[in-house]
Amino acid sequence: MLAFLEYLDAIDRALTRRDSMDVTSLLRKRIATHLPREVREELIALIHAPRASLRAPVQFLRFQHRMTELARGGEPLLTAQTELRFEPRPIEGAIRIDDGRRAAALEATRDESDSCDAADDAPR
Questions:
Q1: What is the pLDDT of residue 102?
Q2: How many whole angstroms separate alpha carbon 123 and alpha carbon 120?
Q3: What is the C-alpha separation between 10 and 29, in angstroms, rounded?
Q4: Do the beta carbons of residue 49 and residue 55 sit within 8 Å?
Q5: Cα–Cα distance between 66 and 75 in angstroms, integer?
Q6: Full-prediction pTM beyond 0.85?
Q7: 60-116, pLDDT tens digit by residue?
Q8: How many CB atoms lie within 10 A of CB 64?
Q9: What pLDDT was estimated at residue 52?
Q10: pLDDT for position 109
Q11: Distance of CA 35 to CAs 11, 62, 63, 88, 115, Å?
């Protein structure tokens, strides 16, 4: 988390100097994947803004503040993507676990085939 906060400070210093080349190089680093999309878009917009622009990096400053507060609380670094929870793996060799949920459909199919057989046996 400390390295990420140092990275955010480096972006902040580059923005203060209005050094668009430095901000661009910082955004190309792998650690930039931890920045939210809105923050990256705002930084790119600021890079392309004229030097006389008075626009502040509000989204970036909010994000930097949040990360600093999380670091004070001892929270780990947020990941670029959350992990998906998968169902437990099936028992080895089992293709499908029979839990009885398909019994109703199976019985309905048997009832239909029985009624078709009965209709075939009926005199014409």
A1: 56
A2: 8
A3: 12
A4: yes
A5: 11
A6: no
A7: 999 999 999 988 888 776 665 556 676 666 666 656 655 656 555 555 555 555 555
A8: 17
A9: 86
A10: 54
A11: 11, 12, 8, 32, 64
Which amino acid is located at 28 in the chain?
R
Domain edges within the chain: 2-72
Residue-by-residue DSSP string for the chain: -HHHHHHHHHHHHHHHHT-HHHHHHHHTSGGGGGS-HHHHHHHHHHHHS-TT-----HHHHHHHHHHHHHHHTTPPPPPSSPPPPPPPPPPTT-SS---STTHHHHHHHHHHHHHHHHHHHS--
Q: Rounded to an integer, what distance in angstroms lies between the CA atom of residue 34 and that of residue 116?
A: 63
Q: Measured between alpha carbons, how far is residue 58 from residues 17, 29, 39, 44, 92 in Å?
A: 16, 22, 9, 13, 53
pLDDT(123) > 90? no
